[in-house]
Amino acid sequence: MKILITGGSGFIGSHLAELLLNKGEEVFVIDNLSTGKLKNIEHIKNNPKFHYKIESILNKDILEDYIKQVDQIYHLAAAVGVKYIIDNPLLSLQTNIVGTEYVLELANKHKVKTLIVSTSEIYGKSDKIPFKEEDDRVLGSTHISRWGYSTSKAVDEFLGLAYYREKKLPVVIVRCFNTVGPRQTGQYGMVIPKFVKNALLGHPITVFGDGKQSRCFTDVDDVTHAMVKLMETEKAVGQIFNVGNDDEIEILALAEKIKDMTKSTSKIEFVKYEDAFETGFEDMRRRYPDLTKLRKYIGYKPKYKLEDILKRVINFYEN
């Protein structure tokens, strides 16, 4: 099978490419390297079944060159990371909305099954825990840049479902919850690689707010295997799925755990959100997924617990 991964040089995309190649598939990647890196695919770029272009999905002609020759699309290309979104609000909206429209339009033209990667940011400030796929969304003011990301990914979902309902295009949507693993960078605000790197270097570990906000972290291998399994499951078409872990930890406790595991001398410092991001910045107190639907459709059971995930990231940065 021939498969296109948009954003395939990114953290998740490169792991997905690796998985699909190991399954014997032929993989095509398009990535503009805005947040992805060539070194993420260095170990697979010489594989005769691997092809890549350094180009934006906003280049419609190049995008179609790949889409017209593949059987499936995993659409991961997007502006990601809270810091990147705040620093590049216009480009983020264009990439996430216009880029997805191009992917779906061309996928429909050539009748290519498509998986759209969305985000747990969809749920916004909702305090209805755990988050279920059909829950209402609760967002803040349009003056706050971060809510533009949630909105853009919601538009992606609406577009995907519209193409499924009106054009009968087979579309699957996944909402990822804090995916972590080797090759992830803390450059755009991802908390675990940032904490690990600072702990290993003996630099201060920066915790935003009071550190009582909590998250559930999922290993990238669990996420990519779930994506592939969903694409192989016919009943998943036209559906939205949370993909994550339900092992919850507060961010301050996470910092302390990483400090302990790395035997670090780093100090833990608290920083106000406004000082780190933008005036009026808002964060979610909890981000906890309901995984009932995913378990029902594909028998999902995460292989990696938080301790395992942290060990993998620590080993990656140590080496």
Task: Give a written overview of the molecule.
The protein has 11 helices and 14 strands. Strand 5, helix 5 and strand 6 form a beta-alpha-beta unit. The protein has a domain of 222 residues: NAD(P)-binding Rossmann-like Domain (Rossmann fold). Helix 1 packs across helix 7. It is α/β, with parallel strands linked by helices and 319 residues long. The strands form 4 sheets. It has a 7-stranded parallel beta sheet, with helices on both faces.
Taking strands numbered 1, 2, ... along the chain, how are they ordered across the largest sheet?
Answer: 3-2-1-4-5-6-11
The counted number of beta strands is 14
Q: Residue-averaged pLDDT, rounded?
A: 94
The level of helicity is: 40-55%
CATH topology of the domain at 2-179 and 218-245 and 287-302: Rossmann fold
For the report, how would you describe the main beta sheet? Answer: 7 strands, parallel
